[in-house]
Structure formats: C-alpha cells, structure tokens
Automatic annotation (TrEMBL):
GO cellular component, one term: cytosolic small ribosomal subunit
Organism field: Pararhodobacter marinus
CDD domains: Ribosomal_uS17
GO molecular function, one term: rRNA binding
Entry's Gene Ontology BP terms: translation
Similarity comment: Belongs to the universal ribosomal protein uS17 family.
Lineage, opening ranks: Bacteria, Pseudomonadati, Pseudomonadota, Alphaproteobacteria, Rhodobacterales
Protein name (database record): Small ribosomal subunit protein uS17
Gene3D superfamilies in the record: Nucleic acid-binding proteins
Job of this protein: One of the primary rRNA binding proteins, it binds specifically to the 5'-end of 16S ribosomal RNA.
Subunit structure, interactors included: Part of the 30S ribosomal subunit.
Domain of life of the source: Bacteria
Keyword annotations: Ribonucleoprotein, Ribosomal protein, RNA-binding, rRNA-binding
Length: 79
C-alpha cells in the first residue's frame, strides 16, 4: 500500500528531533455546498532539527517512531 504524503506548515519545533505540522484540507460541505477548511496537526520526525516554525514541509507516513510520531519529514516543499 502506498504511503500517504501530506503538505503543511511547521507550527512548533521545540522538541528534539520532532516538529508539529499543521495540515489543512478543503472540501465542499455535503449539505451547504460551501467550501469548508478543516485542519489537523501531526507530529513528524525531523532527525537533523533543520526545519523551523513557518516552513512548509512534506511529511510521509512511516512505522511508529514514538507514542505520537507516525510521520517523517520527506523534504521542505520549496525544495
């Protein structure tokens, strides 16, 4: 099964080798027919501590690294 890749913005880099990424998705509401924004935060593994708050990154699903980390940073989205 292919691994999911999401794109989001780093909201926290306070932890060692961990960043928090805010991923936003847009969809049309089934009843109101209005575009709705929904967001979710993911904790991702950043081995080199290279990403800072405000950076746009791509994250990929992986095997569990810790209790809350199931994602790994692939690259910065700009690169």
């Amino acid at each position: 099964m292919p691994k999911r890749i999401l794109q989001g913005t780093v909201t926290s880099d306070k932890n060692e080798q961990t960043i928090t990424v805010l991923v936003e998705r847009r969809f049309t509401h089934p009843v109101m027919k209005k575009t709705v924004r929904s967001s979710k935060k993911y904790r991702a593994h950043d081995a080199n501590n290279q990403f800072k708050v405000g950076d746009t990154v791509r994250i990929e699903e992986c095997a569990p690294i810790s209790k809350s980390k199931r994602w790994r940073v692939v690259t910065g989205a700009d690169a």
